[in-house]
Amino acid sequence: MKREEIKELVAQMTLEEKAGLCSGLDFWQTKGVERLGIPSVRVSDGPHGLRKQDGESDHLGMNESIQAVCFPAGCAIASSFDREAAQMLGEALGKECQAEDVSVILGPAMNIKRSPLCGRNFEYYSEDPLVSTELGTAYIQGVQSRNVGTSPKHFMANNQEYHRMTSNSVMNERTMREIYLAAFEGAVRRAKPWTVMNSYNKLNGTYLCENKEMLTDILRKEWGFDGFVMTDWGAMNDRVQALKAGCNLEMPYSGGGTDAEIIAAVKSEELEESILDRSCEEFLNIVFRYAKNRDETAVFDRKKDHELARKLEEECIVLLKNEGNLLPIKEHTRTAFIGKYAKEPRYQGGGSSHINSTHVESAWEMAPDKEYVTYAKGFDDREDAVDEKLLAEAVETAKNAEMAVIFAGLPDNFESEGYDRKHLGMPNCQNRLIEEIAKVQENTVVVLHNGAPVEMPWINDVKAVLEVYLGGQAVGGAAVNVLYGKTNPSGRLPETFPVRLQDTPCYLTYGGEQDTSEYTEGVFVGYRYYTSRDMKVLFPFGHGLSYTAFDYSSLTVSRDAIRESEGLQVTVDVTNTGSMAGKEVVQLYVAAKDSKAIRPVRELRAFDKIALQPGETKTVSFMLDARAFSYWNMEIHDWYAETGNYEIQIGRSAEEMILTKEIRVESEKAIPKVFTLNSTMGEIMADPKGKAILEQAMGAMMGNSQAAEMADQAKGDSSVINDEMLAATMEAMPLRQMLSFIPGMQKELLEQLVAALNA
């Protein structure tokens, strides 16, 4: 429906009808206006499966929903580093939504993984905003290609579950722009999501539902968002202020209370009715976009989507360690499958994304050559207690095999929506199991089912580790295909696995106090912190092994020096030098070599996943724009690429750079500099114009002989004051101190100098 038609429709609505559109009909449906042909539409939880509730409703996954396919969670999809995989997931979910008459699926979940403690990290993509943006964009495009809307969430700075409904996330403008807003920005600009869901928390003192800067100034005016903003369920604070800020829809239903507040505000002229009209127009634009493109022929093919879930998970699995090329498991190897998760895998997280799965596929069920595979439960995850009988059976089973594969990880109650983790440890009973098995079986593999990083006190005792994350209902088959070499692992870590919790960037402040969480680590989140500190980690961001080998060569850049607006093309050749077909994730980082700003050692600026046959070479090409060299400058409130040298780095992870090339970037933006009597000599001398004016003024005011005499006086008779110390002293000296050190210096002369500097 055209905008003009929607405007005419809104003009025919009563004030009560317009206010009614601003809140839900019930838990999942929006209100309609039957007399005007405005339909009620349904939204539903996602983002890695359709959690449609036909009966009693809730937003925490406690009540039953329809049977659906559980795909790999966000933590897993991000580890694919594969835009095509994210888009395929989106397309499948979009088709399922059409079949079930769902207009908007609530996802993707795009919050940054500030700390591995966040209980909902399993839904989120990455600690890096580029990975979140790229995977989120592909997912949104996939869903919306089926004429179903998405709702990127939770906008924004929702990085903890502790007091998430009242916590105040406090951060500066640069941190916001480079990390937390950046995760959403590219997806909104490029994929044009139909809706956006605001988060529960406050940002710098203002609840997100009523934060005009976020919802209107940035989201709509700057990024061009043209859909509607809905609250997270129960996130409304002040309905009238939220409407003014740009929050269109309150979910779930309000019982009529907040509708009445809107009506009263319009009647009292506290709220301009034109604001309400505009909100209704933005809302109806999306409602009719779905209603006019309803596909009543769509079929929810659960069997087909289960197969897709397995295919996607195979792209996500990360081979963390493979000492002596123990994996893949060779044919007819007597193998012990150990651990409860071999038969009952942990494959999804708890809360609003919990799917009533059609079928859960276990590794035991899918194991080939069953005559060569044995099983022992090893542990029970209902409580963290060692069952000595189960442990003894597992040790004996492992001892009698040629290889042991332990399926372990985090139980449901260790990570969920609603609360944060307290530590990074796995259950003690599982750690004990792994340690005891490794004592009797030198060929031990650990397969991890978890939604976030874990500590691995046994890492040096096992030969191989496979990270399957929360891989969806087909995780068992996907894991088996990788273990036995039917699929070559190609996942990469979208987050850093630290050695211990105390090493994490926000360890001292995470969770906050008195409902205030201060982001004192700034832009140093995840690998940006660890690489800048040169800190040892368990496994770095971007890490992942393969059953084949890849060689990089011929790194080239289009020019050695560019102006920031020109862009830079980077190419690199990648060759599969092994004997097995495989996929490689090519990672491009940029390092500002002589920045005057405090910046991370390197930042991921591009990546691509390519498939290569043995002996095959492909040239991978990247195009870098000014943003790749920029940081957010809080003086000009804009992106700023400094003039200087930058290094283009091709890496296997955030820690391992294998090819580099230096270029020079010339900035085309000027940062206005205002000098005062408190400006230092160093600041002025660093500015070309300032240097010329200062040198001329000093010569005129003092003369060369007086300047030399001043230097001698500053140096004095002490032999401990050398030229370097004198230079440092002069560099840090504010102009006003000349009144103390230069005989006869007058304040009026210095003020004239300042005026000349600012002219």
Percent helix among the residues?
25-40%
Shape: globular
DSSP summary: helix tally: 23
Radius of gyration: 30 Å
Q: Unreliable runs, pLDDT <50, ≥5 residues?
A: 714-719
Taking strands numbered 1, 2, ... along the chain, how are they ordered across the largest sheet? 12-18-17-16-13-15
Structural class: alpha/beta
- Average per-residue pLDDT, rounded, comes to 94
CATH fold name of the domain at 309-510 and 529-533: Rossmann fold
In terms of DSSP E residues, the strand content is 15-25%
Query: What is the tally of beta strands?
Result: 29
Mind sketching the topology for me?
Blueprint: H1 3-11, H2 15-20, E1 23-24, E2 43-45, E3 67-68, H3 74-79, H4 83-99, E4 104-106, H5 129-144, E5 149-150, E6 168-170, H6 173-180, H7 182-191, E7 195-198, E8 202-203, E9 206-207, H8 212-222, E10 228-231, H9 239-245, E11 250-253, H10 257-267, H11 273-291, H12 302-316, E12 318-322, E13 335-338, E14 356-357, H13 363-366, E15 373-376, H14 388-399, E16 403-409, H15 428-440, E17 444-449, E18 464-467, H16 475-483, E19 516-518, H17 527-533, E20 550-557, E21 561-563, E22 568-576, E23 582-592, E24 603-612, E25 617-624, E26 631-633, E27 638-640, E28 644-651, E29 657-666, H18 681-686, H19 688-702, H20 704-715, H21 723-731, H22 738-741, H23 747-758
Parallel strand pairs: 1-11, 2-4, 3-14, 4-5, 6-8, 6-19, 7-10, 13-15, 13-16, 16-17, 17-18, 21-29
Antiparallel strand pairs: 8-9, 12-18, 20-22, 22-25, 23-24, 23-28, 26-27, 28-29
Helix pairs in contact: 1-11, 4-5, 4-12, 5-7, 12-16, 14-15, 19-23
